[in-house]
Amino acid sequence: MKKVLLASACLFALAAPASAADLAARPYTKAPVAMASVYNWTGFYLGLVGGGAWEDSSSPRMQGGFVGGTAGYNWQTGNVVFGLEADGAWADVNASATALGITVSSKTDAMGTVRGRIGYAVNQILFYGTGGYAWIDNKISLSALGVTASDSKWHSGWTVGAGVEAFIAPQWSIKGEYLYRSLGGETYFSGALPTGTLNFHTVQFGVNYHFNGPIVAKY
């Protein structure tokens, strides 16, 4: 019996390493590739805009601030982005002067643009130039001896500038831009008071909501 047990133990000892060698090796599993976020600028957006404006003239010159809304649409091909944008804002840009007991004041109550944009996108950052149509609603007031007379005119012209916009969240972007606006002269008070061209520098900042959800997952 002892010989049988000893033989069995020797047989098990020899068979165990062979059985372990016959076990299948653990298969190699490739780690999943991480997804990269690619920003696609194509689509419609709405936003808020505000900033400051000052007239390109000597003192007294009109200056002040404005706040309003923006709507636009972008098309992207490769890294190039084309766009159309319109904005309108309530404004308080004004100046006044007094001479010979008469105070003359000029105030821009509203302003806006309709512009084209072309830019170069570096993923979530867009550098662009812009230009197009500009307008303001301006009022001139004359005050003397406690009596005030006012007249309002719509001035049209052109604008050109540049800016940068960047996504800060999947559907939200912020932007900053400079615009030079040149508005044609108008005649106030039935031809009694003509004005020359009104030229404004404006610096504005905005936040936009993009409806298309511009992040696209890419492997």
Description:
This protein is mainly beta. The protein is 10% helix and 68% strand. It has 1 helix and 12 strands, in the order H-E-E-E-E-E-E-E-E-E-E-E-E. The protein has one helix at 2-22; strands at 36-39, 43-55, 63-77, 80-99, 102-122, 125-144, 147-169, 172-183, 187-188, 193-194, 198-210, 215-218. The strands form 3 sheets. The protein has an 8-stranded antiparallel beta barrel. A two-stranded antiparallel sheet has the order 1-12. Strands 9-10 form a two-stranded antiparallel ribbon. Strand 4 (80-99) and strand 5 (102-122) form a beta hairpin. The longest helix is centred in the N-terminal third of the chain and has 21 residues, at 2-22. It is elongated, with a radius of gyration of 35 Å. Mean pLDDT is 86; it is low at 1-23.
